[in-house]
Structures
1.
Amino acid sequence: MVSRVIPVDAFDLVIFGGTGDLAKRKILPGLYRRFWAGQMPAESRIIGAARADLDDAGFRKLVADAIDEFVSQDKRDEAMIAQFLERISYVSIDATGTGGWDQLKAMMRSGVVRAFYFSVAPALFGAIAERLSSNGIADSESRIVVEKPFGRDLASAQALNATLAAHFAERQIYRIDHYLGKETVQNLMAVRFANILFEPIWKAQYIDHVQITVAETVGVEGRGAYYDKSGAMRDMVQNHMMQLLCLIAMEPPYHFDPNAVRDEKLKVIRALDPVAPQDIVRGQYLAGGGQGGYIEHSENPASRTESYIAMKVHISNWRWAGTPFYLRTGKRMRARASEIAIVFKEPPHSIFDHASGWRENQLVIRLQPNEGMNLMVMIKEPGPGGMRLVQVPLDMSFADALGEEGADIPDAYERLIMDVIRGNQTLFMRGDEVEAAWAWADPIIEGWEGRGEKPQGYDPGSSGPDDALMLMHRDGRRWREIRE
Ligand code: NAP
């Protein structure tokens, strides 16, 4: 298949926090891969900014090391890396100080896209936004990219939005949720709105329920103190899983346009019901397999923060009334697997005996590993001896279907950074969306805090607490097995 990489406009991208973990693991290697693929024009510049006293050569060394560590061997070409590094420079800046801003201003060029990636703690967003604007470094066409977490409740998200709005218009603000940069997540929209097949049955009348699972095998060791202030609800559900839920549940936007798409997502969030306490299960992983449990990793013996959550969510609108969405996410689970399963209802009348192997149709969208989709359908089991049914997958693995290009799926970050340069906000969260998601999440969190509830322990390498199984069983349903 012919490559369809379309170069973006030339840009100056400043990465505040350019020496940090996210920059080294995702942003800088991702930019190199886009350069390697021919999408980043040669006239573009990347400027690292942090307090560390580095010169250009020192920062280039850091970037070269990051490429070495995080870019696959087949894309590490010496000549290409050298050309990429020529486009890299560094300025030492304290976000809260006065030094370095004149130097940064002098480095910026006119006639290219200006983007500023805030890969720093959210407490610094305001200081950087204010200085970019008061020093005349950002103009009315410049873009800023802000990382998660975007607030820890509605009040802090509103304050953050107000701080950014004091210096930048909403059309300039790109709030990253890297789940939206995943190929399969965008494919959800393509499958729903570019085919006649699914949309007519995409409703409560035909869909029994939806399961969204994000399971990780890692624990919180190394960042337990940070995680303990957040927990699975704030870290995963309010943002990433909410975005997945929106893309499954939203009405067709009138056009694939940033505000049209985000308007529809916002309507879904506003239609979410409060979640009853009996529809929530929270867990904490126990010690096992030679490793400490959540309590040891969080360094907080009295911690009531959840490393696992499962919940049943209802959307009060015509399309979804009566069809629950079950969400679950956890750490130290049996496998690393993220998927969405749309589980369809039984046919209205069966001419076959159900005992002969009937199972419900499912559309399974795999986010990781092996991005792709599977449609589980019933067919006749081959062979003589009567009509026995068997469920088989119609496998739509992108790597198989699209050859090399399908296998070479760009990382979510590199795709989203290119969208920033293109000026396309479709895959970024709008301020009102984030606030609506917190307005839904806040009372749920306040509820269990007010009731003083402790999460249940669950074994590492398991599927989570037993009560999470009960959440489904009592509705006559079952979770899909968590497996890679
Ligand atoms: P990190 O490793 O701690 O890096 C922080 C960066 O900010 C460093 O480059 C640091 O360099 C710089 N910095 C700190 N204080 C500064 C100041 N006053 N002025 C200028 N620069 C300053 O953090 P990170 O993991 O890269 O995370 C960055 C942001 O991304 C955070 O908001 C985080 O929540 C978010 N995020 C990270 C990940 C991830 O996988 N790491 C994933 C999702 C979201 P100096 O100390 O030299 O100044």
2.
Amino acid sequence: MSSVNVITIDGPSGVGKGTAGGIIARKLKYNYLDSGALYRLLALAARRHKVSLTNESALVALAGHFDIAFKKNDRGNIQTFLEGEDVSRAMRSETVAEFASQLAIYSSVRNSLLDRQRLFAVAPGLIADGRDMGTVVFPDAQLKFFLMASLDARIARRHKQLIERGENVSLRAVQVQLEERDRRDKSRLISPLMPAEDAVEIDTSGMTANEVVNTLLEIVSIKGLFAGAS
Ligand code: DC
């Protein structure tokens, strides 16, 4: 298990964990793992190679060798590549999220992504964002957050994100997709979405992105675990 500082941020879609995780990682100069990206990339690779999302053994084989890369661009944003192609935008659609959630129910698929995720835990430290970061992937993390928010707040945030990315989608469609994904992510038998026993739970419903960041950083600082936190 990792010997560097790890902070996990788990929760469903639309609670602000991705935005907060990225900003906090930059502030602390930590590495950042967006574990959802791995599931999304595997879903994209499966579609590309005509692997069915229900073909567990073929998905595991694909996860064992699919060619992915994360690179920081000049503006400090992370660009994501699948087989050399920049898929940063393509991977963010609700359709890809839905596919990712479907293949994420298989224990062997999840296990085949474990090592890749743990490789991110290198000095000076890691912010890991996902569904099972605190429960399964980094159970010994020094600090664990579980973010939640009302369904209405999550729908509104997710809708805004998708519209800003140019996806023409209605509030109602976002609601249906979120509820379906929640149901699947919470009810799967392996690594379901749930807070770790030792997670700090925070309701972000009424908070801006800045408020979420400041609340988490305050707790990081109170815990006194991380040099550079302010
Ligand atoms: O965080 P996200 O919306 O990018 O994740 C997309 C899907 O990937 C999510 O609905 C379920 C799956 N996922 C998972 O099972 N475990 C994780 N740690 C992260 C994502």
3.
Amino acid sequence: MRQKLVAGNWKMFGCRASVEQLLLDLAAQEYPANVGIAVFPNFLHLQQVSQNLLLQKKWNLGAQDCATELELGAFTGEVSAKQLADVNCSMVLVGHSERRILQFESDQVICRKFIAAQSAGLIPILCLGESLAEREAGKAEETVLTQLNAVLQEVGVGAFKHAIIAYEPVWAIGTGLTATPEQAQEIHGIIRGYLKQHDELIGQSVQILYGGSVKAANAAELFAMADIDGGLVGGASLNAEEFSAICRAAGN
Ligand code: 13P
């Protein structure tokens, strides 16, 4: 039985004061005990969040990106997975579509980040997803499996014992357009089936999150699907009531 996980990606939002307020608001909500919870603040706010009480409730702290290089060195502007582990991160997003598209990250770069994350003892959340044009051309499956394969071929299926996958269709991110539960389930099933072909047990146990306009109003029906193990939540994770309601939906 896979545990559900709800992860909040705070993206490039917040300043110290608003993060403090969000932490207070989050602490005032109720959360189910049977759901994993993780938050991904901006790099600048990792320590602030790490020092907060929430993490004593065993929430996971994660970063939104890490360097391709693991060892500390002359890499201006970069943050190593080792440095993230040092401020109590246990997870890191790799290959988010906003980085693939806006920062021109290739599959090869994303693969190196995945490896760096695991080498530092972090769990990478590998983000996959097709654009609207790719979906309309009937290429959603091909796109997602190509992105997955770029990492899988390099690291081997065994690495997915200590990794999480997030399916985030680009057309559903920040648009208010959520994939229907059936659309999301179809791709989740394809991803899991593909991993199972490589290793039945790992395919069965890997957590696959859905991301793209998840909110309290649609979370329960998404999380009820067989291969959806929780959500990677953007906008709604900045609102404590919404975020906690999404966590509760995952607990039912
Ligand atoms: P939204 O929930 O704002 O659509 O963002 C999804 C996302 O990109 C999470 O990583």
